[in-house]
Amino acid sequence: MSKVNILGVWVDDIDAGDLGRAIVNCVEQKRKMRFSYANVHAINIAQRNREFREFLNSSDILYCDGEGIRFGARILGAVPPFRTALTHWIWDLSGLLQEKHISVYLLGGQPDGIAEAANRLCDRYPRMKLVGYHHGFFDKSGIENDEVVELINVLKPSVLFVGFGMPDQEAWIKRNFTRLAVNAFLPCGGMIDSLAGEKIVAPEWMSENGMEWLHRFLQEPRRLWKRYLLGNPMFIFRIFLQRLTEGRQS
Could you tell me where the beta strands, DSSP code E, fall in 101-193? Predict the structure, then answer.
């Protein structure tokens, strides 16, 4: 796979088909791998959080989950990587996991929403091996965390989705990676909330035209205004600085 450097974060150019096959191969070969995603929010966090940036860059695959990444690549004169939006792709991925009889665990979401997310997934894919789920509102260290880790290990899922939001989900995976009897780790942000119907997924035409951020902002303006109204312009400014710096060095 080729990679593109977006402000020091190396994003893989991989499409959804190859990404799905990589997850299946990881499970079939009994490997432990991290399949992380990058969007503008991730890149902005990585500028101020070194450990988070190192997590992204050390992931086995870091796929593009935002049109902003592709936009930044174009400004830098690079080939834009394929984009896989997990909130849409989860349905195709679940079909693949069902076909391959690969077990799954959902970790994250609201206490009153995680069961609904699991039910909706199993309604569409009734033969899917969803071995368990747990909400994301628990103490991420100490006894309560140990109990969640033990619960997951008893069920031994091959694929673990972790949806606490960035950078908490990545930090949790890093701390518990060696403790968990899991093959494929997938941070998933708000995907579980979307599955539960607690967040409305942007229409594909908005998602494909770089307007998903606007759709999310209009749903939660008080929570997300800094992320988008300040974060997006800052990302673009930094991208132009990278292009300028690289131009001077060439």
Answer: 104-108, 130-134, 159-163, 184-187
Q: Look at the chain and count its residues.
A: 250
**pLDDT at position 250, please?**
58
- What's the mean pLDDT in 109-132? 96
Question: Which residue in the block uniquely carries the two structure tokens 């989705």?
Answer: 161
Q: Which residues pair with 6 in a beta bridge?
A: 9
Q: Over the stretch 60-99, which tens digit does the pLDDT of each residue have?
A: 999 999 999 999 999 999 999 999 999 999 999 999 999 9
Lookup: tokens for 42: 């991730």
Q: Are 27 and 183 in contact (CB under 8 A)?
A: yes
DSSP 177: G
d(CA 199, CA 207): 15
Three-state SS string over 74-122 comes to HHCCCCCCCECCHHHHHHHHHHHHHHCCCCEEEEECCCCCHHHHHHHHH
At residue 37, the 3 state secondary structure works out as: strand
Q: What is the mean pLDDT of residues 105-125?
A: 96
Per-residue CA distances from 175 to 142, 168, 169 (Å): 12, 11, 10
- Answer whether 0.85 is exceeded by the pTM: yes
The residue among 115, 97, 120 whose CA lies nearest residue 183 is 97
